[in-house]
Amino acid sequence: MEMQIKLTTFSLLLLLASSVRAQPRVFDVTKYGAAPNGDLTQALANAWKDACASLTPSKVVVPGGIYKLNQIELKGPCGAPIEVQVDATILAPQDPSHLNGDTQWIKFTYINFLTLSGGGTFDGQGAIAWTKSTCGKMKHCKQLSMNFGFGFLNNTIIRDITSKDSKYFHVNVLGCNNITFINFHAIAPGNSPNTDGIHIGRSTLVNITNTNIATGDDCISLGDGSKQINVLNVTCGPGHGISVGSLGKYPNEEPVEGITVRNCTLNNTDNGVRIKTWPGTPGAITVSDLHFEDIAMFNVRNPVIIDQEYCPWNQCTKQTPSKIKISKVTFKNIYGSSATPEGIILICSSGVPCEDVVLSNIDLTFNGTNSAAKFANVKPIIQGKIPSIDSSPGVSPAGLGD
Ligand SMILES: *[C@@H]1O[C@H](CO)[C@@H](O)[C@H](O)[C@H]1NC(C)=O
Ligand SMILES: *[C@@H]1O[C@H](CO)[C@@H](O)[C@H](O)[C@H]1NC(C)=O
Ligand SMILES: *[C@@H]1O[C@H](CO)[C@@H](O)[C@H](O)[C@H]1NC(C)=O
Ligand SMILES: *[C@@H]1O[C@H](CO)[C@@H](O)[C@H](O)[C@H]1NC(C)=O
Ligand SMILES: *[C@@H]1O[C@H](CO)[C@@H](O)[C@H](O)[C@H]1NC(C)=O
Ligand SMILES: *[C@@H]1O[C@H](CO)[C@@H](O)[C@H](O)[C@H]1NC(C)=O
Ligand SMILES: *[C@@H]1O[C@H](CO)[C@@H](O)[C@H](O)[C@H]1NC(C)=O
């Protein structure tokens, strides 16, 4: 009896001790004056300020409901790990001029150990802005705002969040170190202009897992300085697919290395997995150690493509070849249907041909028969079945492919 009481007390103490350690301090925006259907901006800024100053783990909570939010930057460094749990639907101003001229609606910057969680939706309400956008058609245009800017974050997790109808790209990741997107969703109508899903640049250790991106534009694009990126179980489409690049347009870009895209599905996209670099431009970085495997394609226009003559809207000259050196690339276990006769197009640079490219078990059909493969300036290592090699000249990727 006494033994049992002792044991119970002991386990109660243990429970208490662990819950004291595990429970973050909660900063609920409704305690800071936010009310459903009202404006969240000031309450969120104040709750963030207090939570960020905490020297023990903290959590900012935006409970269920609908809130309006103006442009905001939630900035560190903070005193301890911090979580922002959003269960609400948060609406951006519809009028782009109400975003302080900023190119990102919600910014999280300079934070270590950030978690953004909750199952909430961030709705950029882009429909009106899209009708005024000229960005789909022109080289120069006034850039609309992205839903999220994640800048200079370390050890961050974005979980169960939906980004909807962003005016421009949904997410920009810049200068981050160890950031994971898990069960993240980016959605916008297929015809919305430039609503790319997740763009990553100058970041290391980025994981994108169990994510669905359907926006009509690039699903995931990896810019210069992308390193150790893992894209796993992502579904894309409609849109432009998963792209490395474009690269080489500017001097002083950083190399791209260590990219793995695995167990993904591309459905009705312009491209499947693509690497694109500009010819006739100064960029001369290396791109290496890229692996694309276990990928299902449904009605994809260019399922597997390296395009080192990427030059939309004639913004460059193709007279000098791309200086970007691509090596150690594998495309493995890629299957499904191509929307054009060419399942594989590898147009490498005549100046610096691709090296160590492996094509392994690629089963892509066009209209029920084996699709074709076209190569320039590359001698791929072939394993197992691949599309039939077409050695006729005049390789050109299907569609505009921006
Ligand atoms: C993130 O990590 C980098 C590299 O270790 C460091 O320089 C930077 O100060 C860190 N940022 C924060 C907000 O902790
Ligand atoms: C990455 O960040 C997560 C979340 O904060 C952390 O649990 C993990 O240990 C970090 N991994 C590395 C390699 O730093
Ligand atoms: C990122 O994904 C890789 C490969 O799946 C895994 O080894 C690594 O642990 C993951 N990192 C984090 C922080 O979850
Ligand atoms: C893949 O991601 C989807 C969400 O997009 C999820 O429902 C599914 O369980 C994930 N599959 C695996 C094997 O993790
Ligand atoms: C992804 O993994 C799941 C679980 O292992 C599997 O059922 C599914 O077929 C895979 N999808 C692709 C495209 O490889
Ligand atoms: C592809 O997308 C269409 C709608 O655009 C949907 O009906 C279909 O189920 C999707 N297929 C797969 C395999 O995800
Ligand atoms: C698809 O194949 C069928 C018969 O197999 C043929 O009649 C049709 O013309 C083909 N379509 C295209 C676009 O090649």
Provide a quick synopsis of the model:
The chain is mainly beta and 402 residues long. The chain has helices spanning 2-22, 41-53, 127-132, and strands at residues 25-28, 58-62, 66-68, 72-75, 82-86, 89-91, 104-109, 114-117, 121-123, 146-151, 154-159, 162-164, 171-174, 177-182, 185-187, 198-201, 203-214, 218-222, 226-236, 241-247, 256-267, 271-277, 286-300, 302-307, 325-338, 342-347, 355-366, 369-370, 372-376, 381-383, 388-389. It has a domain at 71-76 and 104-128 and 144-389: Pectate Lyase C-like (3 Solenoid), CATH 2.160.20.
Q: How would you characterize this protein structure?
A:
With 402 residues, the protein is mostly beta strands. It has a domain of 277 residues: 3 Solenoid (Pectate Lyase C-like). The protein is 10% helix and 47% strand. The strands form two sheets. The protein has a 19-stranded mixed sheet that branches. Strands 4-7-10-13-16-18-20-22-24-26-29-31 form a twelve-stranded parallel sheet. It starts with a helix and ends in a 13-residue tail after the last strand. The relative contact order is 0.07. Bound molecules: 2-acetamido-2-deoxy-beta-D-glucopyranose (7 copies). One 2-acetamido-2-deoxy-beta-D-glucopyranose (NAG) binds next to strand 21.
